[in-house]
């Protein structure tokens, strides 16, 4: 069901690289590091529908993935960013969730694979650097509006709830939502 006055968007999924075997170990590497940073688009008003949805996702991440250990989930907005990797970069060793586009979120400009891409939702290795003992990831959620919730954020929220990151095999995870 598409609400009146909104545009529908097709969802395309590419599972050609997803392994068909199940992991033999019950140990799952954490997707969300002890520090998770959510970089929101510039211009998101406090208390707006989008801000409320992002806060809901933050709480779901804390509830699902950080039950037994303390966590720091930061929600920030940036006017500029240093794209160079290394220990001095605030994103090194963190799970980073980028919400926005290259115009409203300067961190998006640090990712060559995002520029010109039509994917609304993707996951990549953290270009700013891994944690000391494990790989770090970034989630890219395309969001053009600074007030309305767009499909990529809803798909990400669903994956947080269901743990689909593990079911698909994170290294091979790819979901693309192509707009009209």
Strand fraction equals 15-25%
Count of individual helical segments: 3
Broad structural category: alpha/beta
Tell me roughly what share of residues is in helical segments: 10-25%
What overall form do the CA principal axes indicate?
Answer: globular
**DSSP strand count:** 7
State the strand order across the main sheet.
3-2-4-6-5
Give the low-pLDDT segments: 14-27, 168-180
Order of helices and strands: EEHEEEEHHE
Give a description of the structure:
It is a single chain. The chain has 180 residues and is of the alpha/beta class. Helices cover 19% and strands 19% of the residues. It has 3 helices and 7 strands. A 5-stranded mixed β-sheet has the order 3-2-4-6-5, with helices on one face. Strands 1-7 form a two-stranded antiparallel sheet. Helix 1 (49-65) packs parallel to helix 2 (151-162). The radius of gyration is 16 Å and the shape is globular.
Question: What is this structure's SSE topology?
Answer:
Elements lengths: L9 E4 L21 E5 L9 H17 L6 E5 L18 E6 L20 E5 L11 E6 L8 H12 L1 H5 L6 E4 L2
Parallel strand pairs: 2-3, 2-4, 4-6
Antiparallel strand pairs: 1-7, 5-6
Give a brief outline of the structure.
This protein is α/β, with parallel strands linked by helices. The protein has helices at 49-65, 151-162, 164-168, and strands at 10-13, 35-39, 72-76, 95-100, 121-125, 137-142, 175-178.
């Amino acid at each position: 069901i598409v609400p009146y006055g909104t545009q529908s968007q097709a969802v395309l999924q590419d599972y050609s690289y997803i392994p068909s075997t199940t992991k033999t170990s019950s140990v799952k590497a954490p997707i969300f590091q002890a520090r998770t940073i959510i970089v929101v688009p510039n211009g998101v008003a406090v208390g707006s529908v989008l801000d409320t949805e992002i806060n809901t996702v933050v709480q779901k991440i804390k509830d699902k993935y950080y039950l037994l250990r303390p966590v720091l989930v930061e929600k920030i907005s940036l006017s500029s960013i240093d794209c160079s990797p290394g220990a001095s970069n605030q994103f090194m060793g963190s799970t980073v969730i980028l919400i926005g586009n290259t115009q409203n979120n300067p961190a998006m400009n640090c990712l060559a694979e995002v520029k010109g891409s039509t994917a609304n939702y993707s996951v990549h290795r953290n270009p700013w650097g891994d944690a000391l003992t494990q790989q770090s990831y970034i989630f890219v959620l395309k969001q053009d509006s600074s007030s309305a919730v767009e499909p990529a954020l809803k798909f990400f929220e669903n994956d947080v709830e269901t743990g689909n990151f593990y079911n698909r095999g994170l290294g091979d995870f790819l979901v693309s939502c192509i707009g009209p």
